[in-house]
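Quick look at the format.
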Amino acid sequence: MLAKGSLSWIGTAILFTAVTGYFSFISRIPSGFIQVLIRGIFVIALLLTLFLLVFFRDPERKPAGDEDDAVSPADGRVISKNDRTIGIFMNVHNVHVNRAPLSGTVMEIDYKPGGYIPASNKDSDVNERNHVKIKTDYGSIELTQIAGVLIRRIVSYISEGSQVKRGERIGMIRFGSRVDVIIPEVYTYTVNVGDKVKAGESIIARKKEKIRG
């Protein structure tokens, strides 16, 4: 399955590959520099198409644990942790579709344009970002989607007032990015810096009473 909002990118790449492939192997172009050049462009276009197909993949996910266990909003690695906040960095090979950690109502979406600092950098707070606040039965959970150094584009699948389910797709960040999470006060994190997580599947936090019990 491909991510929502990716067909225009993939379609353009496939069309470009088809055109350069035609001129490389079917059209009668005299051998020489031009033929070598066109075939080189075709190879680049083919590799780009394969890259986009992998990058924009969107596999189905089944949340682990119970309904009140918070699942990761993003694929990637935990790069920061501070009390109720963690940061998850998505490398270029990770799935970039983000998901809701808990079921609830979208109370706020605040999009801001920004700069080009790598998303893994602590100073990336100036980058393009999208802040999402979800009201759940256990308190509010907040997500901040942060775009990276390459093509900056955060795509939102939700709107204010939307009802989202735990593990449901809420948006996508293109080409290198990070998601910061703030959990409700009644929760505590079950992951640490360096842990790898999967969006909509890996449990990142549980209610404190469950852990004590």
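Next, a different chain entirely:
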Amino acid sequence: MKAKEKMDHVLRVMGEMFPDAHCELNHRNPFELTIAVLLSAQCTDETVNKVTKDLFEKYKTPADYLAVPLEELQHDIRRIGLFRNKALFIQKLCQILIDEHGGEVPEKHEQLTKLPGVGRKTANVVVSNAFGVPAIAVDTHVERVSKRLGFAKADDSVLEVEKKLMRLVPRELWTETHHRLIFFGRYHCKAQNPQCEVCPVVEFCKEGKVRMKPASNRKAK
């Protein structure tokens, strides 16, 4: 089976498994999404949503984040990993939004990546979910699943994984593909204890095939 045919098949299966795959970070506008994705680095979406429930009621605009001391913002997001650095990034980001973008989150990818704390993955999430621009954001789940299923090599960088996925998937399906891969990795093909025994695409997964072999056979090799 050719790579594109395999990708089409895998995405159909994932679509059947997770028909409602979507961005799980709670937000009401592009600004809140940007803050939420920034906070989500090395942190679960579940934890971020717990923090932003109160955070987004207290801070509604970039100016709100700049109206308090850095220490207060750090305290408000203290449950988030790397909260000190992230609080600093948020205030710097908000200052740039006010100074250069009229207080609004820019829609262009290259402008987003110039904001403090906003890397390529964050920018991809924002443009695709907030502005409807097709993009594939490669997080840990997307990277893991792509490599396990052979769509990327084990030593590929995150950018290389993204480029390979973009070549295999039609542009109009990039965002949908991103969500399906995340859900598949988050709830099925987990980093620890993946559900190989009931996986409908284990035939494409070298790691899964090894896991499925009897322990005696694995030791013999």
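The chain has a mean pLDDT of 94.

See the schema section for token definitions.
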